[in-house]
Amino acid sequence: MSVGDSTAERAEQEGLHPTQSLDDTVHQRVRLGILTIAREADRVEFGFLKKQLAVTDGNLSRHLKVLEDSGLIILEKGYAGRRPRTWITLTRRGAQALDAELRALRALVLRLETPRPAPGPPEA
Fold it and tell me: Is pTM, for the whole model, over 0.90?
């Protein structure tokens, strides 16, 4: 069980708002993009992520460092021909964190889409 799982389960059990289950490390737009793109492939190249997420080299590097330090991705440096390359791979922990984030987002959407009874007349 990942940290995200226990947070999501605890929030659900305590009846907390679904946003309490969102993980600040994962939820940030660029980092969520990195994790979802990495989930779709065995490994993804830095340049592809940069183009898909419309970020600068420096900005992407900073987000990758946060995810790597959190154990959510692995960075692999090497060469394609004579050109240096960096490849990103999602770790098991990263997949679990992404799954927990998606569950929290689904719970939030469900909460907003579930019809609620109309409020009664105001009390005097």
Answer: no
